[in-house]
Design brief:
single chain; mainly alpha; 2 strands; 76% helix
């Protein structure tokens, strides 16, 4: 068993990353927080609309966009890849809506059709032009947030802002938070009751496509670090955890951001201990936080429900003393 689990050292796992390795681990933690916070904020509305798998669809569908962008531009420039992936993500959401609304196919089936088709097209393109498409498929699928601090530094007016992916993801997270703040009422009403939103003059269709477009931006910005497969966990875990702790959407949004911060920092410590993928470790710690909320939630936790069930079946003391009790 000792061969499977590395020896634990509190100094190495919890102290050294922030003393000797702060230059790298600081940027990694910040990137993880930006990704988890942005995905978590958007993911709350996906959970409310029962569309959590749309994020999974987009994260898989960006592969052909990346391949086509490279073939057309002939470069692996980050912004070229970003635009190609973003276009593919938006086309995925449009295709899902067309299939769902113009046929009798349900939305979950439409999601499956769209993302598997786009993903297969991407695989075919890379297979056909493997000699020209110099893409790291493992990086696209799994990402590696551990190398984000090694990316070129972005400068603005002579000031170093930070690694380009971190700055870009931070800007996306900030824009996401500002848009949710500005359109909080519209998103809330259209997510719970599209009929009521129409009576209030809120165009539910416009809000839906705006949300899907922002989702595409967030997913495309995040996949470079956490990968196409792991990004879906970042979209679901913060919101799912927060919803166990509160029923108020405003509180849930704040708790989602807190979940992102905790899973980012704790994931780094887990990755240092096990010497494993940092992005995967962040998702694992996010799942641990979900399990803790699931067990200890004051309103819907397993312990509260267990005690409530015990109280329901335990007779009052005066009934236990009754001669007829137990007959």
């Amino acid at each position: 068993m000792s061969d499977l689990i590395p020896p634990f050292s509190f100094q190495r796992v919890f102290i050294e990353p922030w003393t000797h390795g702060f230059t790298s681990f600081g940027w990694i933690a910040l990137m993880g927080f930006f990704v988890a916070a942005a995905c978590g904020l958007i993911g709350n509305y996906l959970i409310l609309r029962r569309m959590a798998l749309v994020g999974d669809a987009i994260s898989h569908s960006i592969l052909p966009g990346i391949a086509i962008a490279f073939l057309l531009a002939g470069t692996r420039n980050t912004w070229v890849m970003f635009v190609g992936a973003l276009v593919a993500g938006i086309l995925t959401t449009v295709l899902i809506e067309i299939i769902h609304k113009k046929s009798r196919v349900k939305q979950d089936a439409a999601i499956g059709i769209a993302f598997t088709t786009f993903f297969a097209i991407g695989v075919i393109l890379i297979s056909l032009y493997a000699d020209r498409v110099d893409l790291d498929q493992e990086c696209v699928l799994y990402g590696e947030i551990g190398f984000v601090w090694m990316q070129p530094m972005l400068q603005l007016g002579g000031f170093l802002l930070g690694p380009e992916p971190v700055v870009r993801m931070g800007a996306v997270a900030m824009v996401t938070a500002v848009l949710i703040l500005l359109f909080y009422k519209e998103l809330l009403v259209s997510s719970f009751d599209p009929g009521l939103s129409a009576s209030l003059g809120i165009n539910a269709g416009v809000m839906h496509y705006a949300l899907m477009s922002m989702l595409s931006v967030v997913v495309v910005s995040a996949f470079e670090s956490v990968g196409a497969i792991l990004v879906i966990a970042m979209l679901i875990l913060p919101g799912a955890t927060a919803s166990l702790l509160s029923q108020r959407l405003s509180v849930v949004l704040w708790l989602s951001v807190l979940h992102g911060a905790l899973s980012s920092v704790l994931g780094i410590h887990l990755a240092v201990w096990l010497d494993c993928s940092t992005a995967a470790a962040m998702v694992v710690m996010g799942t641990v936080l979900f399990c803790l909320a699931w067990v200890f939630s004051p309103s819907a936790g397993l312990l509260v429900r267990w005690f409530a069930a015990r109280r329901a079946i335990t007779p009052p003391p005066e009934l236990e003393r009754s001669p007829a009790y137990g007959r």
